[in-house]
């Protein structure tokens, strides 16, 4: 059935010129699900792919704000409401200079499948702006967030579209966004945003969720293959939420994190990274990872974040950004004996890197399965908000762990059913596609 998927991919590229990240995300999914259409020709008859690759709604808007010097600045805001088949649109907001429509479409498209894998009733969407919060004062960030939400507020709601945080959008930004939403609507709709503060509708474990979830699914995969995490050396790219809490959980399970990075460079500490000090640098001081050397001068620092993959390790966790690991980096990891790679970021491996890793029999979990813990816990936050309830850390953590185990088992089983045993890329894509496609057929052509 490659003729059908090839036709749809060609259409996507013609309709969305220059949006290479979006093209890459669509191509990766379509390549995996070709085998589905021989068994299920009804999906082509209902035009499932043509409908799936076209967002239900795309919103682009101007975001004017005033900086601390009294100058007017103008950024561009985006919200792509991609697919609401399974529930309200759900996906983060990213503030980063690289943001444009292609990035948001890629992230929104990935979110459809990731959200379906969680088993929670949530559709896929994504938003953001080319605004850079780095180096901005709290006042500037607040004024930008208020302007951004002034437009976004008319498009979102707890039963319509529920944004969360992403790169550049943490607890501070979510607080400013929620405050403005509440002011505009004159209603306390706690479920309209997730990643909120604990005192005003947030959920325990949400901060740790993506990182913890990454390790829970990795542990499950390795356990099935009789491999222990004890004493394994781990390299983690990034030093944001996902990276820090993935490093924390894998350390708790007996592994040793020896390298981390930020956009300026990477750090190597043979004796094991001091995560509490990394948290102080990044979460408290909003500093650069190079500051680690002030306390640990014996550690090594290199002003090249991509070179982190030249470090020898057993397990690599790319947790920074899309396409951060290319084929050359993947080859270095293979040469150094890496045994497992799990994606904490969205699409952090280039297609060539991912193929190389799979061809060399490295255990590999793609992002739409491996980093689904964040959105799964956001959905648990929505549930608590709807119930006007607040669950304990252990209760949320147990639910998160079970969701991640279920994702692994589902993807693994589906891959096996299609004669692709061990291929979690295909398994995750096919399993989620079936869920979405069957529901789209049930809803009719809309």
TrEMBL record:
Entries under SMART domains matching the protein: ELFV_dehydrog
NCBIfam families reported for this sequence: PRK09414.1 (NF006929)
GO CC entries: cytosol
Gene that produces this protein: gdhA
The protein's assembly and partners: Homohexamer.
Annotated positions binding substrate: 90, 111, 114, 165, 378
Name of protein: Glutamate dehydrogenase
Organism: Halanaerobium polyolivorans
Gene Ontology MF terms in the entry: glutamate dehydrogenase (NADP+) activity; nucleotide binding
């Amino acid at each position: 059935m490659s003729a059908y998927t090839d036709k749809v991919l060609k259409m996507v590229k013609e309709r969305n010129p220059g949006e290479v990240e979006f093209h890459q995300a669509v191509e990766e999914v379509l390549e995996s699900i070709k085998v589905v259409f021989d068994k299920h020709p009804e999906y082509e008859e209902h035009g499932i792919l043509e409908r799936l690759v076209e967002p239900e709604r795309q919103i682009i808007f101007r975001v004017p704000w005033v900086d601390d010097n009294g100058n007017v600045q103008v950024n561009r805001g985006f919200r792509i409401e991609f697919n609401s088949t399974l529930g309200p649109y759900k996906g983060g907001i990213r503030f980063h200079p690289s943001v444009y429509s292609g990035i948001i479409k890629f992230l929104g498209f990935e979110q459809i499948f990731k959200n379906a894998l969680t088993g929670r009733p949530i559709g896929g969407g994504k938003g953001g702006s080319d605004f850079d919060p780095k180096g901005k004062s709290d006042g500037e960030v607040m004024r930008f967030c208020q302007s951004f939400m002034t437009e976004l507020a008319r498009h979102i709601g707890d039963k319509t579209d529920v944004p969360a945080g992403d790169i550049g959008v943490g607890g501070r930004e979510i607080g400013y966004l929620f405050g403005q939403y509440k002011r505009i609507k004159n209603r306390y709709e706690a479920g309209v945003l997730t990643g909120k503060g604990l005192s005003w509708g947030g959920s325990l474990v949400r901060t740790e969720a993506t990182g913890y979830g990454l390790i829970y699914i990795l542990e499950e995969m390795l356990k099935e293959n009789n491999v222990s995490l004890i004493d394994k050396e781990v390299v983690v790219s990034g030093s944001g939420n996902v990276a820090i809490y993935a490093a924390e959980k894998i350390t708790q399970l007996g592994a040793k994190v020896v390298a981390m990075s930020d956009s300026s460079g990477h750090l190597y500490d043979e004796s094991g990274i001091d995560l509490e000090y990394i948290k102080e640098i990044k979460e408290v001081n909003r500093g650069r990872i190079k500051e680690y050397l002030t306390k640990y001068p014996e550690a090594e620092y290199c002003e090249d974040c991509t070179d982190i993959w030249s470090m020898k390790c057993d397990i690599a966790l790319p947790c920074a950004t899309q396409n951060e690991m290319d084929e050359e980096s993947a080859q270095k990891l293979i040469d150094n004996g890496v045994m497992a790679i799990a994606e904490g970021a969205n699409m952090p491996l280039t297609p060539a890197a991912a193929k190389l890793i799979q061809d060399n029999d490295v255990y590999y979990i793609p992002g739409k399965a491996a980093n689904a813990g964040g959105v799964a816990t956001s959905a648990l936050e929505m549930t608590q908000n709807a119930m006007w309830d607040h669950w304990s850390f252990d209760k949320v953590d147990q639910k998160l762990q079970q969701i991640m185990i279920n994702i692994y088992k589902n993807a693994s089983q589906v891959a096996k059913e299609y004669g692709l045993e061990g291929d979690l890329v295909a398994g995750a894509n096919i399993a989620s596609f079936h869920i979405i496609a069957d529901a789209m057929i049930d809803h009719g052509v809309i």
